[in-house]
Amino acid sequence: MTRRINAGIASVALGGLLLAGCSSDGDQPESTDATGDTDAGTGEVVELTFWHGYTEADGDVLDGIVEAFNDEHPNIQISTEVNPWDVIDDTLLPALSAGDGPDIVAMPAERLPVYADAGALASLDDFYDGAGDITPALNPGAVEMITVNEQRYGVPTGFVPLALYYNQAQFDEAGIESAPETWDEWVDVAEQLTVDEDGDGTPEQYGMVLPDHATVANGVWPSLFYGNGGGIIADSSTAAIDSEANAETLRYWQDAVVNDSISPTGVDGIGADEVFSSGRAAMTIGGPWMVFIAADNEIELGIAAIPSGPVEQAASAIGVSMGVTDKGDEAAQAAAEEFFAYFLNEQNSVEWSLGSGWPPLRTDIAPEQVAENPTVETLTGMADLGQPLLPGVVNSVDVLAAIDELTQRTLAGEDIDELLDQAQSEVQAALDN
Amino acid sequence: MLTTSKARYRAPAPLGGRPRRRPPRRRSSGAAWGMLTPALVVLGIFVAWPMLVALRMSFTDASGFGDTAWVGLDNYVRAFTDPDVLDAMVNTVIYTALFTPAAVITALVLALLVNNSKVFFRSFFRTALFLPFMVSLAVGAFAWSYLLDPQVGLLNYWLSTSGVQLGNVLQDPTLAMPTVALVGVWKNFGFYFVIFLAGLQDIPASLYEAARVDGAGVLRTFRSITIPMLANTFTFVLVFAMIAALQTFDQIYVMTGGGPYGHTQTIVMEIYDAGFGRLELGFASALSYILLVATILLSVIQFVFFGRRGKDLS
User: Fold this and answer.
1) By C-alpha distance, which of A66, A237, A228 is closest to A150?
2) Which domain covers residue A322, as residue numbers?
3) Which chain B residues are closer than 8 Å to A404 by Cβ?
4) What pTM did the predictor assign?
5) Residue A8: its chain B contacts at CB < 8 A?
6) Number of structural domains in chain A
7) pLDDT digits (tens, 9 = 90+) for B50-88
8) What is the ipTM of this complex?
């Protein structure tokens, strides 16, 4: 009997310990201000956590701005937690669902509508309406990318149009003096740079690498569509992929890639970076990080805007933004907005731009102000070409999957009209979902 | 009066004397429950409770945030009518059909070879064959992706020196699934191999000796002794391999991301996309339960089928 009682007591004790370990410490003082008992105005410290995915030198610059903010705002203390973007995406949902997670979170632009629509992010309309001269000066495309259901849910931390990056040495070797400015010039130059020494039909060097799925920031093909006056959506609820303009675009590049072999096929965005950095392709479409990739591989890099299409010169933009998680805490939101205003002031905008390698987010900052970084100066000159990818679209996952299938099968030589018809149905279904 | 008495047969006492009749042990179920409770508590908190929550969630439109609404069987109806999910189910079946027999047969054949005492360097082969299973799944998948890369991959380079063009197998709609299944076999067969090896070593040598004395050849010995004695191990490995195949995710996620255009998209990847990509936790939970039920059904069928067959063979 004694043994049974002892066993029972031990079981209850162990179960209690486990339950205690799993329960939230609701009776403990919150480390953040999530209780709502504190705010910036009462002299108590508001503590915020900030998740971001800037893991390279740009992360050091951002952390430096946060530290400077903490020093200047003793009543608000922000601690940053750095993880790769996909890790943030995977952990944000369970963390917030459990009532935990960050107060401020940065994420790629196409993910923001998903979380905003689910109610995970707080609206920042008040911030935009009351931030004086700062927010009106923001790149309109960058603001459009954080607008969901006509409300603004984020503050941009990066907005840069995709650009053409080329191997200057291979250009010099082929006697090409300048970057192409139109599609026809682009294909001509690519043909000149395509080298099949042994004549086996597989070039040893491609003129360019045109990824056909999971492209850089999913923006390569949208850039081409924009260049010919097409696009993916008319608005956040209407598909517009099945258009004559897009059909012409796809035929043009299908012919160039499949018949003229100017690019390998079946390559994704990461693969494109590898093909370019290994010297097997002379041109690629990418973002500012290509500067570091080129330096690591001792490639002399040239940068130019994506060549103009038959209708206009445009490029899909790579966007990153930060939002405030909706924990119903006004003090935390006010503190976060104070940080956003600090982040976007002129001095920090220039510092962040130079440190991250991305052009300034404010249109009132002249290229000369960032001239000490030639890459940033070049990208700043083309900032107005950038168009946000799928602004306000909640189900971007399925839309992008449909575009990937369209472009991959196009470069596999399939019938474009049928593919566009199918893509239109799939994109519309995703928008309706 | 002559009386005869019939002597009653009394069996000889076993060596060591007859066992003394012990008093019946009292069942101490309380102590048993006490010992089990810690494990049950852990299982309850970390397995049963999440499963119940997920079951409830599968009947809602939960996104992980805000209010959720009861949607009845809508998520289950959608699962069986959504073309992407149906494609993913078909892909999962194809992967399972390619992976399971290949992994099990490879493991069995290699176990039979390495179990042979005439084979040199048996310890080396045992370790070498088990090694892929020790490699992290993501690392193995990355390594194979690089090896198979048509532009910078070593495998393509080596083959091209012999005039063979492998092409972009991971982006070929026909070859992508067999390729990822092959890498899956490479990664996992080592585990099944070790189990088979243990099963083979459990078979008493006296059976083989008796068979040899009776004049049985290698094939007859294999058919009449090895297979029946391995029946339970075989069933276990088969069910284990099938469950692994049905739940495959990481390796395909790394190697193809479900591509080319959905040709390697499995049901678990569909669950991931629904849950983490679109924040449709209700729908993702419904898909998880469908996978769970399918896995249980297939496992039961296999246990019943191979259980009967094992009895027949015995």
Assistant:
1) A237
2) 46-159+318-383
3) 259, 261
4) 0.79
5) 30, 34
6) 2
7) 999 999 999 999 988 878 899 999 999 999 999 999 999
8) 0.74
